[in-house]
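Exercise 7. Given the components listed, write out the predicted structure of the assembled complex. Treat all entries as one system.
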Amino acid sequence: MRNSEPAVNTRVFRGLVAFLWTEVLVQAHEELAMAASMMVQSVLLVFVWILAPALLGVAFVGAIVYSMFTMGQRVLNEAAYVRIDHKANDLYLAGPMSPEAYFLGMAFGILVVYVAPVVVLGVVATAVIHFTLAQGVLLFALSATVWVFSASVGYIFSTFFRDNRAIWAYSSLFFNIFGVLPPVFYPFRLWPAPLAPVALLMPPSAAAALVQASLGITRLSSGETLLAVGGLVVETVLLFLFAIYWARRTVREK
Amino acid sequence: MTELALQSENLRKVYQSKGTPPIEALAGVSLEVRRGERVALLGRNGAGKTTFLKIASTLLRPTSGRIQVFGYDVDRTPEKARPYIAVVPQEGKPFFHLTPREQVYTYLRARGLGRETAKSRTEEALEKMGLLECADRLCVTLSGGQRQRAMVATVIATEAPLLFLDEPTIGMDPFARRSVWDSLRTLTRRGSTILLTTHYLDEAEALSHRLYIVERGRVLVAGTAEDLKRSVGGTVKVLLPGGAPLAETFRSFGSSVTDGDTLTIIVNPERLGELMDLAVRSKLLATVGPVTLEEAFLRVVGRSIDEE
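Answer.
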């Protein structure tokens, strides 16, 4: 019999690359969305350039971190949309592809497409900020960490929605509140001092503050640095592990 | 390996949600699907068909009971059952920003098929589904029926050992439906097993070796289409103009139903002559034809509703 055995064995990340490529193809058809993903950052950069040009470097760092953070919003929107409207979960997960591959394939696929404008932003930023290699690596590593955090949040949140209309409002609210209100686009020291730990425990502002500190724009005490690094790493690792668990757990409805 | 592709025993599913009474979607469904069979699950909306398919395809946990796919317990070890199955979900859609060719190919690759196999099966499935002409157009530009064909092509191309198809031909034109039927027949000839739900009774009759009628979460009838037709008291129907007033006169020949001005009587072929004699004596123009599966379904399910 031609179908007596399944074509594949049981590997955890089975199907990841293929699904990543699927998502790249899907996302790459939306050139306008790629441009629109830079809208908030661009507007804020123009405002800062006009109103406080001395802070343009801070704003560029913020724009890069924010861009990585809002990729989680895309993961949320895409995961919920294809689950609710297309029943993609049923198609893909009732099969040999693993739920981890589904989550990570989607997140990486969105990253591959939407990282292009961020790279352009980074290149433009080098005209304003003079990065050393170490500072560049730090910005890259922190941005990547923020992406892992936000992609995990996005995927987890996507599973709670049953209606796409609700998602548009809530996802926009969540990612803009945590990406714009805390000191991401402006210097950490302008944030109310009593609330400093709150900002340092929020991944986008923690990452921005650490880069600002490395560039000498902001001074962080060793305690604050520890809180920012520790918080960012612990929150990201825990949330990522939870997202993996949640991806497995939500394959089946109860 | 077991000869049964799917086996459920006393499968129950109760949906619980806060503030509303629990809903028993499945009230103890036991059924079997043998390897290589095409089996249809029929029932009214909300009868429990999709719930059963979701449990069988590892996407929903049952409340109690047992269900196995090729001997693997779907509830306890879903990851062992999954490589054997593929699903056309109810109201599923292809990715709108993929072409049908990309949709089928990338899906096969995500299931672990090699490049060459995926490529050849993609072309074969697109051809079978009549999608070659629009294979490189984005799915968002296709009609509803073409999108549905793309979904079916995606899943039949897997040639998975067990295929679950939840209303696979919904929105398709009669030609496309027949292409799907042909493809499903080919798949079972190659060794796949198919469990499908449909509201098109002609489809169930043309396609399935056996069928189960589900009503309020229970299996009402199991057997072949012919078994079901016989179960309603005959395989021949006689249509008489005049409607309800004639029901009493023809009561002894079998069950009858009035549809507008027409009285339809289900009768055994042995008593057909006798009935026709009475119709002629009554100066009635009778129309004779075979009982369709739809008529048998309506009677079986209708009887069940009346009893409840």
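Discussion: Residues 222-249 of chain A form the longest helix (28 residues). Chain A touches chain B through 39 residues (CB under 8 Å).
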